[in-house]
Every structure is written in structure tokens, then in C-alpha cells.
Amino acid sequence: MPRPVTLFTGQWADLPLERLAGKAAGWGFDGLELACWGDHFEVDKALADDGYIPEKKRLLEKHGLACHAISSHLVGQCVCDPIDKRHQSILPERLWQDGDPEGVRQRCAREMIDTARAAKRFGVETVNGFTGSSIWSKLYFFPPTSREDIEEGFQDFRKRWLPILDEFKKEGVRFGLEVHPTEIAYDIITAEWALAAVEGHPQFGFNFDPSHFIHQFVDPVRFIEAFPDRIFHAHVKDSRVQLTGSNSILASHLDFGDPRRGWDFVSPGRGDVEWDPIIRALNRIGYQGPLSIEWEDSGMDREFGAREALEMIRGEDFTPSKVAFDAAFSKK
Amino acid sequence: MPRPVTLFTGQWADLPLERLAGKAAGWGFDGLELACWGDHFEVDKALADDGYIPEKKRLLEKHGLACHAISSHLVGQCVCDPIDKRHQSILPERLWQDGDPEGVRQRCAREMIDTARAAKRFGVETVNGFTGSSIWSKLYFFPPTSREDIEEGFQDFRKRWLPILDEFKKEGVRFGLEVHPTEIAYDIITAEWALAAVEGHPQFGFNFDPSHFIHQFVDPVRFIEAFPDRIFHAHVKDSRVQLTGSNSILASHLDFGDPRRGWDFVSPGRGDVEWDPIIRALNRIGYQGPLSIEWEDSGMDREFGAREALEMIRGEDFTPSKVAFDAAFSKK
Amino acid sequence: MPRPVTLFTGQWADLPLERLAGKAAGWGFDGLELACWGDHFEVDKALADDGYIPEKKRLLEKHGLACHAISSHLVGQCVCDPIDKRHQSILPERLWQDGDPEGVRQRCAREMIDTARAAKRFGVETVNGFTGSSIWSKLYFFPPTSREDIEEGFQDFRKRWLPILDEFKKEGVRFGLEVHPTEIAYDIITAEWALAAVEGHPQFGFNFDPSHFIHQFVDPVRFIEAFPDRIFHAHVKDSRVQLTGSNSILASHLDFGDPRRGWDFVSPGRGDVEWDPIIRALNRIGYQGPLSIEWEDSGMDREFGAREALEMIRGEDFTPSKVAFDAAFSKK
Amino acid sequence: MPRPVTLFTGQWADLPLERLAGKAAGWGFDGLELACWGDHFEVDKALADDGYIPEKKRLLEKHGLACHAISSHLVGQCVCDPIDKRHQSILPERLWQDGDPEGVRQRCAREMIDTARAAKRFGVETVNGFTGSSIWSKLYFFPPTSREDIEEGFQDFRKRWLPILDEFKKEGVRFGLEVHPTEIAYDIITAEWALAAVEGHPQFGFNFDPSHFIHQFVDPVRFIEAFPDRIFHAHVKDSRVQLTGSNSILASHLDFGDPRRGWDFVSPGRGDVEWDPIIRALNRIGYQGPLSIEWEDSGMDREFGAREALEMIRGEDFTPSKVAFDAAFSKK
Amino acid sequence: MPRPVTLFTGQWADLPLERLAGKAAGWGFDGLELACWGDHFEVDKALADDGYIPEKKRLLEKHGLACHAISSHLVGQCVCDPIDKRHQSILPERLWQDGDPEGVRQRCAREMIDTARAAKRFGVETVNGFTGSSIWSKLYFFPPTSREDIEEGFQDFRKRWLPILDEFKKEGVRFGLEVHPTEIAYDIITAEWALAAVEGHPQFGFNFDPSHFIHQFVDPVRFIEAFPDRIFHAHVKDSRVQLTGSNSILASHLDFGDPRRGWDFVSPGRGDVEWDPIIRALNRIGYQGPLSIEWEDSGMDREFGAREALEMIRGEDFTPSKVAFDAAFSKK
Amino acid sequence: MPRPVTLFTGQWADLPLERLAGKAAGWGFDGLELACWGDHFEVDKALADDGYIPEKKRLLEKHGLACHAISSHLVGQCVCDPIDKRHQSILPERLWQDGDPEGVRQRCAREMIDTARAAKRFGVETVNGFTGSSIWSKLYFFPPTSREDIEEGFQDFRKRWLPILDEFKKEGVRFGLEVHPTEIAYDIITAEWALAAVEGHPQFGFNFDPSHFIHQFVDPVRFIEAFPDRIFHAHVKDSRVQLTGSNSILASHLDFGDPRRGWDFVSPGRGDVEWDPIIRALNRIGYQGPLSIEWEDSGMDREFGAREALEMIRGEDFTPSKVAFDAAFSKK
Asked: What is the per-residue pLDDT for C327?
């Protein structure tokens, strides 16, 4: 039984959900991972308006689409981040207000709790998203960054997210952090630290996305093996290292899509992610959730790409062996 | 005629200069690149006390050591950086004072000008250092960082450093930025942008240091070829990529010396820097300055390492060909 | 004219041939390579019961399936091996009996001769299989293994197999050794020695299977080129090297399918075998026989895999050029 | 809007165009790139016989095939080459005549001008081809080849081709040199020199063909980026490096198709060319012309191959993104 | 303080110890690791003759040589191995006797206990050696080897070695298994199993030897990191992978020194072992013991090689950093 | 007993032999390989003037230098080449005369015979050199080069060189072709063809020089193994592949020393040649002749380089093992 393949709607928020749902269904997707921006899934309306969620459900049903997870990357980012003007562009006015950093962080923390509540009402058990980080910007250790500085960053994460996770628990909803540079966890080691910081909270796990590991040279399979019971959701997204000796893996403050970058996101199947070993690893840990295509490629028409990616991942996904099987031969 | 080999004193500032000079001379170094911290080269005293510079010169002469450059990385870092508590640890009290960010930046800018004046008095034409950067922390583009955000960072650099460079020009002293993550320029592309930001100011160039390119996968030779007339000074420092599939090239907020890091600094000659092509490139551009060993290796005794590095670079450095020479054979 | 694609039935012996034939035909296979175990092809019955072979033929014809070869790996293995309890699990009772090593070896040698006779009656000219080896276990030379020890092993092979091959000759049937660790020949050099040991006997050749070369780092094309007139049959089977620095190419006594192994078998097309150069090499030597899928992958459902593998190899197989053709252009 | 895919007819000149057109249309090609040999496109008849071109057009229309370019590699080759007996085999009698080298070169130069005229009448704006080179044979510098020798070769190219290009200009037809060993330009550097030699003549550009770069280890994308406004046409042709340590990248004077060669041409999609980055580069420079399959593989049936190559490139070609798109998410 | 460099005498047992000691001292070695064969260290005599050990000590002292470990690979091998005629060649008559396998194994087990006693008398706390293995020959799993078969092998090891280790404990002597194909442990995973089989016995650890990991593609540093408190001794021995596509990593039953082998031992410093990371790892775990050169290279004169290896490892070995040291700079 | 290390004088012909000999002896060379140009070894004078050779001998003896071979690359090149103006620059007037190609070729053929005679008188048994080639310039097969064309080239070589080799035989002197692009043989395959063309003439063999194989990706060890009894002499010369994706392995008609070339010669020890495997291969075939440094590096002072190269090769050269030696240990 292959897994359902869904489309993450975050990069399509310029399209009304109705229109996007029609397209996605037509291409053959099994469902959508709804972004909490655009009109795709609006937390405030979902809680305030009793008709909102039934209406969304009808819309999806009409197109034969399931929803296994909703995603709140933008609000989540603002929970721990030092807030600057860039954050204004990713938040609605009701959360930004006067832009006072601590006020923004606290409003976003409350919004995350509301997101769990809305998910519960919607019948979805997984919320994916970002956490932000007070120490990402101290990545390269100059001026010297001490272990205390780092520890402080993880304590800040703990202080802000433990109460959120406790509320998630009450709702029976899990939070899947998309491990990603700019977040409290961006590789295996920092993911271990983040998990330790929240004392292995049962609602805290990961939205596995290999595209963020490729340019760090982290093997995505190692991530799955490190956290076999914490993979709550999986993204199908791809990236490619394109080093020439003249460019930098740090990407030189160049925009995505600039061919001079040392790495870039590409349509799933055209990058450096090897999907077969990932499928095997997901099979081994018993992951049964969706494979959700997060489509991002600055050089390709997105509708062409979404269809190609869907076909690619359907070809790669496979059922694990049902029989114990080795080099042996059965006699008789 | 091989180039002089000097020792950068920055990582030895716990030793009084007198003691370090004795050691370095004993190991066979030709000179020292004096750090503007510890008692190695104190800008304020050099300008205030007429006996300071003659005394330093005597000290070096006594040991048969030359000085081709002084270095002010710590103060330079504070000119453009968003100032936080980490900066307090790298500044003297007279520059930190109340720690107000803009005040710190301006005091450090003035100190850089004084550094050029002191260098002039000392008879040294090159000051190496850092510049800081208001945008380094926006490296990975989330929340979305616009081209305007980036451009603003380079304008800030221009605004703060052009006046400094003009004062350098009056003194006939050049500033060599050590291209380095956390600085306004950390690779070839950002170095081009930085040079453009200061309109190709004649006093602005680079302290070439290959160790900062290795973990970015930038070929150090390409850097030299990109800026043939801007290599004002050269560091001999080495680093090593040690990726395993489980760790990240971003180094996971781990301390230098932690074996889990994706890369680390190692004693020159034991890392991934290939010195022969660098020597050839320096020969081609006619660089005649010192090869200055900046020794940093968290796993090795520094005195053992400094001697080994000196022997290594003397073996690698060579005189270019004096004759036009190709596959041809002279007949008769 | 592409080659027929067959399915080797050895890993499906838990299914009655009738059922397997129905499935294979449904998936589009052109034929079956029948294993001499399970009920797929029973040598004793084929010789004792005049109705057995006609019945098998009818069964295959009913499904439109051809049979180009039968395979007797298990019995062949016991001809030269030092016999231990593991061999009991791969032999029928009538060959094992009291398990006395020499007795087992001789009964299995006679069974191989019978296999040739049954093949002849069945109208099949190729029997694939293993040979066993008295010296495989002395692979790594400690305690010191002398050339005499090795030579003795090949003499043992000669002594036991020459009489078998002579009987094959009488029947006009060829034996194709699947070159494989644990056999007298497992790479190019040992295959040359084995061929020499039987004095280049015309009935002795190879069942080419690239999956056993990949983890030895032997290029499968070199094997084909080394024995152009001895490739009697070809398996389509794949394997993958999955070294991490922590695991061993020797596979650590771990079971197939354990992700910690340094290499493993995977579904054809998902491993390290490059099929295009193999097809070209088979074209060059004029191999016209079947491409027989030996499907083995501990992590994948075998029915999913068999179909995928069939599609893969049909896409890779191609007809050689019929015209002399080079960079030239024909004029006029 | 994907690009049209055409078939270059040069390697099919043994087939009458009528027959080839039927086949190509049946396989699904959008058009043909007609070779100026065989009966595919005969320059002399096109100019002498008023019915010739309308007849060709009718033939193509009948099969629903377009023609975006015609190609004259054989005649072009003879414009600059030192002429030897090999050239006789690629020229019609009317151009070879007595074979006097300078006479051949001048007749071929005039034929190239006629080719532009015929193209114009045919309604085609691009003529692809070779130039020949008086210095290719001096590639490896022994006996010592001076810069003057090389410069002389480029002057010879300029002297012979500038008049041709001027005539092309009159006709509004462009010449696309297929950069290729044996030509005046065979890599990026020599292409720059060739362009400079004809003073950046607006009719002079390139028929991009990655297969000639692979075995030189030149990245095809770099070629496109070096000449963004000079890519007049593009070939889909593939090659493969097959070095073993025993053979040479120079190919040992072995015929194409000999497996001992260090590299060889293979059917598009089976070689070392990476098509995705090429499509992206062509998208970036706005190339809208055809992707023309030049099919050459000494080991594969050409009809099998042409169909496979067509399917491959259709799968690789894609529309660029219509929206500015980066890691950002649109809010609201 | 660099570590002492010793010479393992096993490959020099054709020389009387007196003569070898003179040579080794002359070349500059700090000590010898005495082999328990030849006249280098005879366990039976050491226990039977009260003058034997004082005489050995005098001999070493005369040449200024220390002894940190003795080694008993040959006898150790016979404790668990299935005994065949090859074992006769490595045992003295008194241990071989009638060659009955179980008798040989038990005599050798008792000899190992005596070896600990002799070591104690000699003032040496480490005995290095092999263990043998009842399951090495079942490495490649055909006929199918079950987990029970493997487990049985480790139980056999446990049964035979636990009593030996208990006697070692009484003497205060440790046993360092040289992890090596043919032994119960040959890589990291099997070493973990072996350690578990003897319940983490405090006297059981490893004689680290990287040459046996190279051809398995195991990173020697990972081994050190896996067993930081079990590295009892370290060999300096090197090997080289020399795969060509025509040969096998399994080495084809070819003799050491045959250039067709897929790997071979070479003089330390000329192989694929990277010594710098090993030295760093040994520094991190606080290993203070000797670096003992086990010299083996079938292509080089051993006296030339021993001297070269000594010089190589002295150049690689270095003292760890005595100060906490990172990218930081000390101010003031 | 390490081999003698000599200096090939070809690249030093601007220095009178007297002066060069003094330098070389001072640097520690054991001998000189004299070039037959400059005043180093003049064939015409050696035959015409009875005092010439004794005088040369005295000169060498005075400096303690041996001579194992003389070299005549320039004259040899003109035996088979199509002669053009470049050849004038490498020939003395007496051989060039009117420059008529066939005349030049025949005069040079006679000069080669005289060279053998002079070598004999000088007491030297090996003459190294080039052969030229009538087909080198047809390397890349366009216009199509037939097998007949190639065969003709080898017949031309045979026709011109067999008579020369017969004269060599009379003198007891051997000819060592330096296998090299531009010659009749430039890799293993063409060397086999050349040897076959002269029917395995006993005086015909090779001056092994790995620097010409590196940029062809030919493994120098394979060359030695292919011709174990034909390695008459060995050059120590190095080259380096420096591909960037923007440049070509064909080197773009760029001068040696231009950093844009895809490969270049560099001082021995600084390139891609691995000397250890070469020394082992020379040991295996029993080569006892000199290691002759042909020093060529357009980026390095040649006197610095010659000394460094001498030290490098002395460190790499080693005596083969005198004892049969494998993984075994001697017991007792």
C-alpha cells in the first residue's frame, strides 16, 4: 500500500484554495497539506466561525482530497526569533501590531496554541512549522560565542515552546518542526539538543524534509534513523549542490534561482536527494503518513513541476517486503 | 628569493611580546604580524607615548624580526556589527564604555583611523582586519530577505568605511580585509560587492586567508585570480572538511576542536589547503609580501605546530621561473 | 530484436509453479528460469515419471512462457563444499541422508549429472548453478595459506566436476556457473583459474550475474570481455554498496536487509549496476540468450519489484547497430 | 511551451528524405534539421531549379514537419582545412574537382555563400556547420608551436570567413558553428578567440552541442553562459567518458564504437551529459529554438535510439517559472 | 611529550632478538613489542627458567629499549579456530602434538593464561593477540547462515575466552585483540558483539591496527571513538586499496605482494591510512601507550622500510593542545 | 641499492655542458642524460673528431658524473613527421638545408643511425628519442579517418625505422621511444601497434615517462606492466590535471605555463604522478637503469626545482624486498 501523496499549499497561497484544489485533484494528488496563510487555512476564522471548518471540509471532499496536516511556518518562526522588519512581511496585521519584538513573539506563541485547537476541530493531528531561534545568527563563532550563549538559546526555546506543546497535548495534536537553517534545529545534532530541551515532550517531533540537509551534506537517512519515533510528517522537496570552485556553499547572499549560488532548491527528482534509501528508511521506522510535495524551483513552471514531482514520488514509493527474505533459497 | 615567513601574534596574546618574539626568532621566523591586542601593539599608547614605537622596534630588532603588517580584527569587527554582549569580550573598556551599539561602532571606527596613524609611525603600510557586517545574520534567507535588505547592508558598510579608508589614504596605509564569514565579504562574490561598495578605493584590499574558503568549497586560487591587485597580505592558515554524513558543514553550533564539527581549523599543512597552486598564483600576480602563519588548531600543542608550519611553508614557497619556458627545446 | 526476459523462480519456490506462472505471465514475462527446488523442476521426478516433463511443458505453454534454462544452485553447492549443518537445510532428504560429508558430495555430483539428463529431456540446453569450494573459507590468508593449499582446492574442483562436465557433454547440455563468493570462482581471476582447472571444457561457462561483482568492485563489463564465448546465461540482479565509514564491505555477519551492512542486494535498477554498458558488452559478444531477473531485495514487496524490474530491463535492452557507423557522414 | 524537437538528418543520408520524413513524423518529431548532403537539401539544385524548394516544403508539410535550420558541416570543413584525401570522401565531385587544396577551399567558401542563399529561399534563418582549421593539427605543441603560429591560424579563419559572413548578413541568415575538435573553435577559450577574430560579426554564433565538451571535461553550461546571445541552435547529442586506466582520453586512433576508446558518442540520455542544467541555462538566455537530436551511437540500432532520445528530451525540457519565486511564502 | 615508538618483532622472528635489538636501537626506536615466537619471548622458558626474564631485560636495557607489550597472535588464533593443517605451521610441537582440533584449542587456551603470567613476571601489562573464530568461514551467507549460527560462534568465543580473561585479571594483565578478518571481531559491529559476549570484561580490549580497516572501508577513527576506554595498544601498519575494475577487494586468493590483489599491506606512510586524524583521536581518548610499528610490505626491503616508517610516525605524532583554544582572540 | 638519479640536459641546453655538469654534481646528481643538442652531445663532431668523446668523458669524470643514455628527440621527431616550418627551429642547418620534407626526413633518419654509432663510441647503450608520426594530426577522426589511413601511418613508421633499428642492432645500441602525443605511440594501445609494426625488433623499446600519461588518464603502472621487457630508460617528470569545468583537457592551444590550460607539466613531486606504485612496478620488472629527471615547470625556478626533484625521487626510490614475505609469521 503506497502512501498518500499530498501537495503542501504554502507556495500556492496566491491561488484561492478552491482553484488550487481543483488543479491538484486534476493532477492526481491524494490530498493537501494546508498552509495557515492565504485563504487556505485561517486559524482565527476556524475558531471564530463555526461554519468555516465544515466549509473547508466540503471543499476538499468535493475534489476527493484528504488533509493529513496543516502547517504554520510563518507564525512559528516568530516565536523565538529576534524580530526585525522582515518578520512584518510574513505576519498578518493582527499579530504584528506595533512590531514590538517581545509582543510579537508572545502573540505568535498564543497563535500556535490556537492553531492546535483549530487543527483538532478540523480533525487533523499534525501541525507542521518552524520555531525560530534566538541564536541562529550566532552560527559562525565570531565574536567568540560561548557554550553558555548557545545553551541560553536552547533555554529560550524551551521556555517559549514547552507551554505551547503542553497545550498541543491537551488537544491531542503533534507539532512537527521542519528542521531547517534559521530554526532552533537544523541538523541531527541540534535536533537532538532541541528534543532534549523540551525533555522529549511527546508532542514534539519533526516534519522530515531532506532538501534542507543536502546542502549541509547531512545524509537524510541518518536523520530518520536518529529519530525513528519522531518523524510525524514528511516533505518531498529537493535541492542540489552546484559548487564550481568559484562559488560558496553559503550561497553568497544571492537569491534563490541565481545560478551562481552554491546550492538551490529544484523540483523533486531533479536534485541530489536519493529517494530510494529514504523510502526504505521510512518503511523501516513504520512511517505511514503522507509524502507531501513542497514544490519550489525558481527555474521551472510550477504546474509542470508539481505534476512531474507527483509522478516521480509515486514511482519511488514502494511497499516493504512482507516476507523474511535473505540470500537463502527455500528448498522443497 | 623566497618570501619572508612571519607569525601572526593574535593567538599568542597571552604571552608578552618579549617572550613570544624570543620563541619565534628561535624557531626561525623572519618576522611578526603584530596583533593590536595584548601588549603586542597598542594603538592608544603608540599615539600617546613617543617612546612606545621605538621600544617595539628595538624589541623586534633585538630578535632579528621584521614587521610587515599589524592587525586589528577585533576593533574592525565592531565597526559594522549589530553589537551584542559577545563584543564586550573582545573590546577594551575604553571602546566598549556603556555598550550602546551605535556608540561602540563609532568609537571603533575612530580607533581604526588611529590604527592607520600608528601603523604609519611604526613604518608599516598594511593594517589587516575585519569589518563586521550588519547583514551576516541574514545569511539564510528566511524570513525572506530582499535584495534591498542586502543592498542596505553594503551601503552601511560603505557609509562607515569610506571615511576610514580616506584617512588611511592620507597616511599611505592600506587596509586588508580578511575575507571571512561574519564579515561584509566572505567569498568571491561578496568581495566583489564590497569592493564596488567602496568604489574600488585604492586603500581597500584583502588579507588573503585560504582557511576561510575551504569549508565554503571556494578554490583559494580563484580568489587570488579575481583580485590580482588587491592582495595586500597573505595568511598561512589551514582548515579541513570532515563530513561524515551525520554532521553538517554548518558545524552545528559546536566549538572549534569538537570532532563532530563538519569542518575545523588545523595546523597549516595538515588540512585541505593545497599550497603549491597558491604559491603559483601569488607568483603570477607578483605578490612579494610575507607569508604570515596564523596558527590555530584546537587539537595540537601550538609550539609544536608553529614550528611544523614554518618548515612546511618554507618547503612549499618557491621562486618563479626566470626564463620563458615551455615544451620547447633549444637547439644547437 | 530485444532479448527475452525471464524470471528466475528460485526466490518464489514457496509458490506452486502453476500460481507463479500465472502471475509472471500476467506481468509480461517471456519465460521462466526454473529452479530445481520447490515443485518448479524436480530432477528425480523428471527422470522417473514420463508424464512429468510433458506436464511442465503444457503448464508453461498455457501461460505463453518459454524456458531457456533450469538452475540447480543448491545441489551444485554441495559438490565441493566442506559440508556442515547449513547444507542440510538446502538439500532434500534423499541427498542428505546421514549427512556424511563425502557421501553428500558424491550424491550431489550424481544429481548434477541427472540434472543434465533431465534438462535434455526438457529440451533445455543450459543448467545454471553453483559448484561449492573446498577453499572459500581460506579466503583471508591467516593462518598463512600457501599456493599449494589454493592449488589443492582447484584440483579438488577439477576432480569432482570434470566427470560431471563430461556427462553434460554427452547430453549436449552446458553448465553455467554463477560466479559468486562461496564458489570456486567469484571474480575474474578465479574464473580464469577455474576454467583452466577443467582444461577449458566446452560445457563449462558462466551464468553472468553482475550483483556479485558490485560489492567486490569488479566491473561487470570486464567479466564479459574476459569470457566472451563462455557467457551461457545472464541474470538481471542488482546490488548496492552502502558504506558509511562505520560499516564494512565484508558486511559484519549481518543479515541481508540489515541497513548496517556495507552492501546489499536491491531490486534491479535501484542498485549500482549500470545496465547500459552491460547490454553493449552482451551485444558485442553476440549473446542472444535471455535476461533472467533474479529478484532479491529484503526491503521491497517482491511482486511490486518484479514488475518494476521487468519494465526497467526492457527499457535498457536494445538492438545493436546494424550499420557500420562512426563520426562519419555519408556524402551525396 | 516546450521547444520543438527536431531530428538532424546527417546520419540518415543513406535514406531518401521522403522515407526518413515518414519515419520521423511517425516517431513524433516536430521537424527536421536538413543536412546539405544526400538528397536532403541540395544547395546547387535549390538555386538552379525553381521547383526544388517548393517540392521540399510540400514533402515536409505532408508529414507535418517543420524545418528550423539546414546544416552544411562537410563543405564548411573544407573552407579552412589543409586538404587531404579524406576530404575527397566528404565532398561532391563538383567541389572536389582536381583536389588542389586552395581550389577546394575557395570552391567550398563560395558554396557556403550559396548555402545561405538557398536557406533564405527556403525560409530558414540558420545554417549550422563546421569551419575547418589550419591549426588543429598543431594542437599538441611539439615541435614548439608559437603564439604567432596560432594567431596565423585565426587570421586565416578570419580572412576566409568574414566575406562569407558578410554575404550571410545580406541574406539575413546566421551561421552556427558547431564547436568541435578539428574546428577553429573547440572549447570556450577558442570560441572566444574565433568570435574575436571575426570582430563579433552579428551573423556568427554557435550550434551548441554538449557531446563535444564532455570528453574535454568542459561543462556545457559554462559554454552557454559564456555566449548567451550567440546560441543560434542546439543539438541534443551525448557522449560518455569510459576511462579505465589502460586507455586514453585521446582515444588511441581507435574507431568510434570500439570499447577500448577513452570516450565515445552514445544515444542521448545514456551518456554523461546532464540535461536538466542545460535546459535551465537555455531558459535563462531565452533560447527558443529547436532541440535537434543528432543521433550517433555505434552500438545501438538508430531507429530504436531516435525514438528513445525523443522521449528523453521531451521529459527533460520544461517551461521556466513565470513568477518571481524564492524561499518566500506569500502571506495573507 | 610524543609517544614512544616501538617495533613489533613478529615479522623479524628469523633474526635472533639480540641482533634485531641492535638494529632497532640503531635506527632510533624507543622499544620493542616482543612476539611470542622465534627466540623473542618464549612463554614456556619464561615460566620455567628463572634466569630467562632477567636476561631479556638486560638485553633490552643494553640497547636502551623499553618493552610495553608482548604479542601472542599465533597461539591466540588457535583458541577458537576450526583447526586445520595450516595451524600446524604456526604452532610449536608442544602445542600441536597430535593435532586433534579440540586438544589443540585447549592447549592454546592454557598457553594464553601462561602468557599472562609470563608478562606479569616480565613487568608488562599488555598482551596483544588474536582469538580465532569458529564462524569466520561462514562470512558470506551461503548456504544460508542463520542468526543462531552466528550467535553460536560468539558463545563459543565467550566460553573459551572468559576463563582466560579471568586469569588475566588475576595477573593484572590486559588482552588486546587485534581486530582483523579471521578473528571473532574484524570491524566495529563485531567488536561490539565480542565485547558484549565477554560481558565487557575489564581485561578485554583492543590492539588498534588501522591496516585491517582500510580494505573494509571502515574509518579507523570511528573505531577509536567507538571504544575510547578499550584501546590498550596501537599498531602503526598501513594498507592500500588498489582496485582497477578488473580485480576484487576480496583479493582473489592471491598472495600478499601480488600486484593483482585489490588491496595490500604497504610500508606505513605509503598507504591509505591517514595518520593525523588517528593521532587526534588517540589524543582525545587520552591514549598514552606506544605507537608500535608492525612492518609488512612485500615489495620493499624491510630495513629500509622500518627506518622510513619510524621517521614518518615521529613526524605525525604530536602533543595535544594544552590550552582551551578556539577561534577566539584574547583581548587586552 | 637505489638506482642512480640523473639529470636530462635537454632543458638546460642554453648552458654549456661544463657549467651544467658543475651545478648538477653540486646538487648531488649521479649522472647526466646528455641531449644531442647545444654542446652537450654533438653527433657529427663525435664521429668526425677523435678527441671529442674522450674530452666529454673527462668532463663528466671530473664531476663524478656517469652517463647512461643520450637523447635525440629533435632529430627523431623529423623522421616520420610531415615537415613544416616549426621543424626548422629544432634542426641544425646541416639537416634542414632546403627544408624539402622528404629530404629532411631522410637526412634525419641517417642522423639517427649516426647517433647510435656515436653512442657506441661513447660507451652508452641507450639512445632515447622521438619518432615523429605521419598520422598524429589525424587524431580526432574528422573528416572520417579510416583504418587504412591509420595502418598507412604505422607502415610509414615501419618503413622508416626498421632500417634504423637494424643499424642500432649492429652497434649494440637500443632505441627508447619516449611515448608522447605527437609520436607514433602515445599510449598503451598505440605502443603495442608500434612494437608490432617493427615486428618486436629487439632494439626497440621505451623511455618511460609518466608525465605524458597523466593528462591522458592512462595509469603509468599499466604501461610498465604492458611492456616489462621494453622499458629501456625512465624519466622522472610530472604533470598535473587542472580542470575547472571552464577549460579543456586538450589545453586550448594555450602555452605551457598558462594557468587556463587543462593540464600542465610541474616539477616532479608536485603533480599527479604517484611515484610509489611506479617504483614498485619498476622493481617488479627488474629495471635497474637510471631515474632521469626531465625537469620542466613553467612556474618555478629550474635550479630550485631540480634540487627539490632530486630529493623527492631519492626519498621515493627503494630497494625491493629480499625475502619472500607475506602475512605469515615465522614460528619458533
From this structure: 42
Cα–Cα dist F29/F8, whole Å: 11
Using alpha carbons, select from D46, D220, D27 the residue that is nearest to residue D6. Answer: D27
Q: Contacts of residue A81 in chain B, CB cutoff 8 Å?
A: 143
Q: Does the beta carbon of B281 lie under 8 angstroms from any beta carbon of chain F?
A: yes
Reported as a single tens digit per residue, the pLDDT across E201-215 is 999 999 999 999 999
| Sign of the CA dihedral running D187, D188, D191, D193 | negative
Please report residues of E whose CB lies closer than 8 A to that of D245: 244-245
Q: Residue A272 in 3-state DSSP?
A: coil
| Partner F contacted by B331 (CB < 8 A) | yes
Closest in A281, A321, A330 to C300, CB measured: A321
- Burial string for E96-133 (b: 16+ CB within 10 Å, else e) reads beeeeeeebbebbbebbbbbbbbbbebebbbbbbbbbb
Cα-based torsion angle of the residue sequence B78, B80, B81, B85 in order, rounded to the nearest 10 degrees: 40
Residues 7-66 of F with CB under 8 A from E: none
**Distance from C-alpha of F306 to C-alpha of F325, rounded to nearest angstrom:** 36
Confidence at F326, pLDDT banded by 50, 70, 90:
very low
Q: Which distant-in-sequence residues (6+ apart) come within 8 Å of C332 by Cβ?
A: D13, D37, D38, D92
Residue C258: what are its φ and ψ, rounded to 5°?
-75, 125
Other chains touching E, judged by 3 or more CB pairs under 8 Å: A, B, C, D, F
C-alpha distances out from residue B295 to B7, B176, B215, F228, Å: 8, 19, 17, 49
At a CB cut-off of 8 Å and minimum separation 6, what does E249 contact? C215, C216, C217, C249, E215, E241, E243, E262, E263
Residues of chain D with pLDDT under 70: 1, 323-332
**Most A CBs within 10 Å: which of C94, C95, C298, as the mutation test of the A interface?**
C298
CB-nearest partner of E321 from B38, B270, B302: B302
CA–CA distance, F92 with B159 (Å, rounded to integer): 68
Q: Which three cell numbers stand for residue E80?
A: 577458537
- pLDDT value for B323: 63
pTM of the full structure: 0.96
How many Å lie between the alpha carbon of B247 and the closest alpha carbon of chain C?
12
Residue of A91, A108, A250, A278 to mutate when probing chain B, most B C-beta within 10 A: A250
Up-side HSE of residue E311: CA atoms within 13 Å toward CB? 9
Given an 8 Å threshold on Cβ–Cβ distance, is F139 in contact with D139? yes
Q: Do E325 and B256 touch (CB under 8 A)?
A: yes
- The DSSP call for residue B66 is B
**Closest C-alpha to D213, from D229, D191, D246:** D191
Q: Which chain A residues touch B181 with a CB distance below 8 Å?
A: 140, 142, 250
Residues B233, B288: Cα–Cα separation, whole Å: 9
Q: What is the pLDDT of residues E282-331, one digit of tens each?
A: 999 999 999 999 999 999 999 999 999 999 999 999 989 876 544 445 54
D286: buried, middle or exposed (CB in 10 Å: 19+, 13-18, 0-12)?
Answer: exposed
- Our CA-based measurement puts residue D265 at a distance from the nearest CA of chain B, in whole angstroms, of 32
Q: Inspect the interface and report whether the beta carbons of D284 and A301 lie closer than 8 Å.
A: no
Rounded Cα gap, residues F117 and D36, in angstroms: 58
pLDDT exceeds cutoff 80 at E186? yes
Picking from D146, D217, D248, the nearest residue to F218 by CB comes out as: D248
Sign of CA dihedral E163, E164, E165, E169: positive
pLDDT < 70 stretches in chain A: 1, 323-332
Residue F325 has pLDDT above 60, yes or no: no
